[in-house]
Backbone:
């Protein structure tokens, strides 16, 4: 979509100027005429290159999508037409969201559905989001679907906020440790090394390791940065592969405390998403397919793909889930069986999701409680190693004198 400047005359014959967002000049002229204006000229507005800082500051976050959904749901429930609601949101949103809303509004005014216009922005709206909007359009319950979707996004934002808040303290401590260690290695150790050389001190093995590491960091720091960057890039590329992603996810699941926490978070998101989609009228097959595509764990994604195939062959959903004990706990297949018997699958999955969220919060507290003393122990060992490595040569010099 491009922005076009226009000149036009209103019903009173006065000159009016402005801007519209459209795919081509013909579309732009059509939008201007809808405002009961007579088009004089349409010119494309030249694009402005954005720097990286502006791109980062104007990126669309999960919170932006949550606010957009809640406001849209409120206005649709109040009886406003979709185009009017989108027009209001366009004026109230920040610039990055405003551009997306403008494009969606232009597509809707051309006669496209809301779901298809949102599908053009797949980096902003997830497949789950688009499927739910589409189900609301088909069932004529867009207002109900948007409210459910807004509630779900708010719960997801709240839960992720709790996880991030719990990890702030450990991250700050770790970053502080690394910063202090680098300062010691780059600035302090070289000065002490020159003193040791002047007196011809016999360096202990731990001091030699520290001095050697300091020399490498000072003399070959560009190579060190390149190697660290290459390692991170290689890990990212390996994780992007199917085999690599599965292997890394397997390793994460096996880490004490952290692995179980990760499993609970993935399962909470999965069951909440399935509950929302099934409750909004999306078929079970489509819900499973979309969940497999958006799952954040390769093991769970592959298990969901197999579950989809089994259900397609006619097997009960609970039986299909019970075949993958490596991904889904026994309680999930049990509760799904209850949902199949009662016909209240969405309600059962919502309750299971709540159970997983509570358990993940408890495990999160256990992880943070275990990380803090572990960090202090590592910090103590590191400080002790550096102190011994620095003081021992000085002590040897004083005893020689």
Residues:
């Amino acid at each position: 979509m491009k922005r076009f400047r226009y000149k036009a005359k209103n019903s009173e014959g006065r000159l009016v100027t402005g801007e519209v967002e459209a795919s081509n000049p013909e579309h732009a002229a059509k939008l201007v005429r809808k405002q009961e204006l007579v088009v004089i000229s349409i010119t494309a507005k030249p694009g402005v290159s954005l720097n990286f800082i502006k791109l980062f500051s104007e990126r669309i976050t999960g919170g932006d999508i949550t606010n957009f959904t809640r406001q849209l749901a409120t206005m649709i429930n109040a009886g406003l037409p979709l185009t009017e609601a989108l027009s209001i949101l366009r004026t109230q949103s920040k610039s990055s969201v405003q551009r997306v809303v403008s494009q969606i509004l232009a597509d809707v005014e051309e006669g496209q559905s809301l779901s298809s216009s949102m599908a053009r922005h797949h980096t902003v709206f997830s497949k789950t989001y688009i499927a739910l909007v589409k189900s609301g359009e088909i069932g004529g319950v867009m207002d109900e679907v948007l409210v459910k979707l807004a509630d779900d996004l708010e719960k997801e934002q709240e839960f992720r906020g709790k996880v991030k808040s719990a990890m702030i303290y450990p991250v700050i401590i770790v970053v502080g440790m690394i910063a202090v260690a680098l300062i010691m290695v780059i600035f302090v150790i070289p000065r002490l090394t020159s003193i040791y050389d002047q007196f011809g001190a016999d360096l202990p093995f731990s001091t030699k390791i520290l001095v050697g590491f300091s020399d490498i960091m000072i003399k070959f720091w560009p190579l060190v940065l390149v190697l660290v960057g290459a390692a991170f890039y290689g890990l990212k590329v390996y994780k992007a592969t199917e085999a690599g992603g599965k292997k890394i996810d397997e390793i994460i699941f096996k880490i004490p405390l952290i692995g179980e926490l990760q499993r609970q978070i993935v399962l909470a998101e999965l069951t909440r998403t399935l509950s929302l989609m099934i409750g909004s009228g999306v078929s079970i097959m489509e819900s499973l397919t979309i969940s497999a595509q958006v799952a954040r764990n390769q093991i769970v994604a592959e298990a969901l793909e197999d579950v989809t195939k089994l259900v397609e062959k006619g097997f009960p959903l609970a039986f299909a889930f019970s075949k993958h004990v490596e991904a889904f706990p026994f309680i999930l297949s049990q509760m799904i069986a209850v949902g199949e018997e009662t016909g209240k699958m969405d309600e059962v999955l919502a309750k299971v999701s709540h159970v997983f969220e509570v358990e993940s919060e408890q495990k999160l507290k256990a992880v943070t409680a275990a990380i803090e003393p572990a960090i202090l122990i590592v910090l103590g060992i590191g400080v002790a190693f550096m102190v011994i490595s620095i003081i021992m040569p000085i002590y040897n010099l004083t005893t020689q004198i």
Summary: The beta strands are 2-9, 15-22, 38-44. Residues 48-56 have pLDDT under 50 and may be disordered. Residues 142-199 form the longest helix (58 residues). The two ends are 80 Å apart (CA to CA).
